[in-house]
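Progress against Task 2.4 (sequence-to-structure conversion) is shown through the following example record, which the project officer requested during the mid-term review.
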Amino acid sequence: MKKIKEAMTSVLPVTAIVFILNLTPLVNLSAKELAVFLISALFLIIGIGMFSLGADLAMTPMGEHIGAGLTKAKSLKLLLSVCFLMGLLITVAEPDLSVLAAQVSKVINGTALILAVGVGVGIFLLLSVLKIVFKKSLSSMLIFFYMLLFAVASVVILNGNEDFLALAFDSGGVTTGPITVPFIMALGVGIAATLGGKDVGENSFGLIAMCSVGPILAVMILGVTISGDIGYTVPDYSIESQLGSALFETIFHTVSEVIMALGLIVAFFVVLQIFCLKLPKKTILRISVGIIYTFLGLVIFLTAVTVGFMPIGYKIGTELASAHPAILTGFGFVLGMVVVLAEPAVHVLNKQVDDITDGTVSKKSMMIALSIGVGISIGLSMLRIILDFNILYYIIPGYFISLGLSFFVPGLYTAIAFDSGGVASGPLTSGFILPLSIGACYALQGESAIMSCAFGIVAMVAMTPLITIQSLGFRAVFTRHMRQRIAMKRILAADDEQIITFM
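Structure tokens generated for the chain above:
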């Protein structure tokens, strides 16, 4: 019930905004559309609550036990091999990635996209583990790989596939979804805690940050091989296309995806339990119950997003753009501030940050920073749709600012910030915000411009929290510095008084 209450506070603001918007002349939802949306919101609450409980009981403990167990085995080859395979296979089965691949299947082969992203995550998860083992700086690695990323982006532009860049940056955001995030984050915690050292807290984060870079590079490299004009056909987003027999098809498809994704993690865990971990039966029973909660929660959540939120997001985008384009920017900001509250993986991250930092970085401050960041990102994305310009005008300055801030804030804040970017861009972003963006772009710029101006919104959601959360760190450093100066002045003043008294 505690998890359900938390989920209600997350989902109700989004639901209220859509409901209030329907009462205005700007958006006109039919009775059927509104009913399906409200029922989907109810199931979304149940799904987030069950998933959140399942993550606490199963996903996080499994990741921590696997990370700790593989590290204690003292075989670097085994650790790296298992991490690469887990990164590849879990990503291939990630529901978020399937949602994105389905929406761009007419542009690029969905299987090729998923495999490219999976390989990218596998390689960069391996590099993340090497960073922890050899105690390398996350900031230095991120600067190097983002410079490499922008170099590859220039090749893509020269190749004439400039529109492909937005899809590539979106791929980095959707990869780190609700199944991948809790497990990979916990894996890092387990490895860092076992290796120890003075930077355990900082080393516990950063895996999601690195795993977000790999898919972008992989998809960009894939884009270099594609020649010719990249077109896009808008899928059928009507509410009718999701009801009747289509509803059962959606449920069956979602169930099969979640079984595949969870099954791979469970299979890894079972093998390691038999040969390496040997955890007590009580722990295994608790994890088993958690897996059931995770499975049911994800199926309910993803089905609700597909059936109720995706069609409504697209319709709101088209109608707002048709009514008054300027309203899109303000609406995007407000919607972004509340939609991040409903991302299931965000709650997992905030809890882990609060636990590892012993409340130094609180859940409340994290949520405020994330809300502001995502609000700004969606507001700016709506502005880009109205004016129709390349996403690199946002991405390049944004990443230069965020990487520049890493020189002035503690490494822990940088690691948390870059992890937050991947976590914030979850299934609700790809299943509600992306269709809203496509609808707005279709109404304002036409179908031919969708690849260039609608896509990229997930990348923006993944980028802006890097700046807002590092700003928390900058504020903390500045506050500590000011307190030290005040304390020093008091000490000097006290010494002066003693000297005067003595004289």
